[in-house]
Amino acid sequence: MGKNVVAAEVYAQFRRAFSMLRGSIEAFGEEEWRGGDIDFLIPCRQAYHAIESVEYYLSEYPGEFKWGHRFDGDWEGMPAGELPTQEEVLDYLDEMQATVDAWLKGLGDEGLLAPQKGFPWTGKTPLGRALYVLRHGQHHLAEMNTELRRRGIDRPDWQ
């Protein structure tokens, strides 16, 4: 095994999680994407929040993070018709995947296991924060997949 085994494994798990999120986003038709009978569970809201949270948790200064900056509105509060398109959310996902990739490669195993200053509720190390972000994203992915099932739409395969 190489010297950055932990970072490589975390990297692989993020890749799989992002791939599954992409599959869920793409599974919804355009008419389903911004709609639903439960406002909180509108697929776009869940995807937007999951991806924006990645940006937040990888930010250097969390106190200065501006929620809603990407699409000029809060994922919970925006009117459904003003929520971003699937293409816009997929572009955001691609950017955050690149951000995570660079973050993990920059830290390596040593950095992942070092003490962290911010985000104390996520753990004592950047590894704890990475695992927290994965868990948070999987939570919202599960909500999206439940909506796919409820709507009779095929869900992406587990990875």
UniProtKB/TrEMBL annotation:
Pfam families: DinB_2. Gene3D superfamilies: dinb family like domain. Residues 48-144 form the DinB-like domain. This is DinB-like domain-containing protein. It comes from marine sediment metagenome.
